[in-house]
Design goal:
9 helices, 15% strand, SDR_fam, Sc_DH/Rdtase_CS, oxidoreductase
Length: 277
Amino acid sequence: MSSYTRVALVTGANKGIGFAIARDLCREFPGDVVLTARDEARGRAAVQQLQAEGLSPRFHQLDIDDLQSIRAARDFLRKEYGGLNVLVNNAGIAFQTDDPTPFDIQAEVTLKTNFFATRNVCNELLPIVKPHGRVVNVSSSQGSQALENCSEDLQEKFRCETLTEEDLVDLMKKFVEDTKNEVHEREGWPSSAYGVSKLGVTVLSRILARRLEEKRKADRILLNACCPGWVKTDLGGAHASRTVEEGAETPVYLALLPPDATEPHGQLVCDKVVQNW
């Protein structure tokens, strides 16, 4: 048995759903919980808030848009814990519907964080995830909606069981390019940068799960995407139907799947139920 303490890390955890996930893991996960945030002051303030509740998270600065920051977190986890047991990729952004920023800029900025940066976190941290590890990518049912609103040709590509990570990256880049050239609708894309970014996260989760199955089957690592629902956060807005605590339920459920669990894996899960894709 490894002498290392078990460890769970949550990205974008200084507020909203990420904060609620970190709080629940502090209560339920048998090990250390690392709360990460891009802004150090806000992250430390969040840690203090949880400490005031009698919980004891650790803080580590992590800006998922910065590859060096991701690698620094990876090195910290390696050195302190010999790897990672639970990864919750929660960090993400969304423009408000009335934001005047041109759509092509919204597309570029949203995909940069929600898809490309999340992919970088997975690529850097998956190799250090230990056997029976759990990886949860916070996606959205808006990703599924975006898929429904894609052309049949694009739907076929995204649903293809043999789609590679490189193919997916090319598709995501093409969406950004098509918005720049003002042809995205003609090319079969929906007009939701957030939806397309989360579609990318869900499909990436399927691809990464398949790769784990091929390369590390014996390690029984489970990797899934989930939809927390429409939650009252800066991102979801005040009219949302769920509290952050309710939004945290499915991600935490997936993060704490028992060691002998074999599923779900590579799925999109809402309200603890696997969704048809």
